[in-house]
TrEMBL record:
Keyword field contains Transit peptide: no
Gene label: aroB
GO molecular function: 3-dehydroquinate synthase activity; metal ion binding; nucleotide binding
Cell compartment(s), UniProt: Cytoplasm
Function: Catalyzes the conversion of 3-deoxy-D-arabino-heptulosonate 7-phosphate (DAHP) to dehydroquinate (DHQ).
Pathway info: Metabolic intermediate biosynthesis; chorismate biosynthesis; chorismate from D-erythrose 4-phosphate and phosphoenolpyruvate: step 2/7
Source organism of the structure: Prevotella aurantiaca
NCBIfam families for this protein: aroB
Protein name, per record: 3-dehydroquinate synthase
NAD is among the record's keywords: yes
Cofactor(s) in the UniProt record: NAD(+); Co(2+)
InterPro entries registered for this protein in UniProt: Dehydroquinate_synthase (IPR050071), DHQ_synth_AroB (IPR016037), DHQ_synth_fam (IPR030963), DHQS/DOIS_N (IPR030960), DHQS_C (IPR056179)
């Protein structure tokens, strides 16, 4: 099934049409502390949201947990949501993940619409049907695959984001540019991130989402080719986890640094073209800066990679590239190769 993704600048009209299509008996809007102010206030007087009820949970990934989920379920129950009610998820990936899971499980599933308000959620989290929460100290440990009725993408929301958050989402766009055979990478590498021209970004974003949709359509449950979307994430997740106890970095920054390491492995193990790797790495270094690790951190990082849920039998699982769009899934690397990739990130 292909999920419906609507790109629009007539947000009210698109939302109204999507709600009408669902024909719900009640409408609920899920937001976090931030989007409840910054985003909900912009839409609360829409005619199509008359009578809709706002549910707010605390922001940030640490609240993508059972407590927030219980709050959503409890509110839906107390306010007498039925199987024909609709939940609109208004926010970043934390909201679309948790809200999607709440909707997919309440009374065995009610309608939900994703309205991503961050670049990261537009290009990745809100599209493709992954929903869930963190549990037992592990990210996205509990969840289901369930598509939103519709994902409504209006890049106007991006005006609320700072440059760091835009760059964080942009890293997933770079990933999409690398895992496709379409000529998507070159424009991404020549985009001026100091200006972030939203019109130009919107065009590249549309193509980027199509790349993801195309892969998800072929393998919705991540049994094979969807693993292409994990490119940059084996190192990336370990960087993100490592930084949590020091100076946390945004997800997309961890992915960008992960892309550097996994491009290095792609060159030495899969013959990925050095020239393309170099251009991409130069862009990442110029825009995302340095990731401050030293050799003494390598074992901890490798240990974190060994706990990644993509692994089978504790063997670290990588997605690597032979060339743009030429994916090699289920690849391994020795500890020495991983350390060389980390050296390359620090010095390359
Ligand atoms: N974020 C990767 C995926 O949706 O599969």
């Amino acid at each position: 099934m292909k999920q419906q993704v609507v790109f629009t600048h007539q947000f009210e009209q698109s939302l109204s049409e999507t709600i009408a299509k669902c024909n719900p008996d009640k409408v609920f809007i899920l937001a976090d502390d931030t989007t409840a102010h910054v985003c909900y206030n912009r839409i609360k007087d829409f005619e199509c949201l008359k009578g809709a009820q706002l549910i707010t949970i605390p922001n940030s990934d640490i609240h993508k947990d059972l407590t927030s989920l219980t709050h959503v379920w409890t509110t839906l129950q107390t306010e007498k949501a039925s199987r024909y009610s609709l939940l609109i998820n208004l926010g970043g990936g934390m909201i679309t993940d948790l809200g999607g899971f709440a909707a997919a499980t309440f009374k065995r599933g009610i309608y939900f619409i994703n309205v991503p308000t961050t670049l990261l959620a537009m290009v990745d989290a809100s599209v493709g049907g992954k929903t869930g929460i963190n549990f037992g100290g592990l990210k996205n440990e509990i969840g289901v695959f369930c598509h939103a009725e519709t994902v409504i993408i209006d890049t106007t929301w991006l005006q609320t984001l700072d440059n760091e958050n835009l760059l964080s989402g942009y890293a997933e766009m770079l990933k999409h540019g690398l895992i496709t055979e379409k000529a998507a990478l070159a424009p991404l590498l020549s985009f001026d991130t100091n200006i972030f021209n939203l019109q130009l970004l919107a065009e590249m974003l549309k193509e980027s989402v199509e790349i993801k949709e195309n892969i998800v359509e072929q393998d919705p449950h991540e049994k094979h080719i969807r693993k292409a979307l994990n490119f940059g994430h084996t190192f990336g997740h370990s960087f993100e986890a490592w930084s949590m106890t020091r100076k946390p970095i945004l997800h997309g920054y961890a992915v960008a640094f992960g892309i550097v390491c996994e491009l290095f492995l792609s060159v030495i193990k899969q013959g990925f073209p050095t020239e393309t790797m170099r251009k991409t790495v130069n862009f990442i270094k110029a825009n995302y800066g340095d990731f401050l690790i030293s050799c003494s951190d390598y074992d901890t990082l490798i240990d974190l990679m060994k706990h990644d849920k993509k692994n089978v039998n504790s063997t670290i699982n990588f997605t690597l590239l032979q060339d743009l769009g030429k994916i090699s899934i289920n690849q391994t690397a020795t500890d020495d190769e991983i350390k060389e990739a980390l050296d390359f990130l620090r010095e390359g």
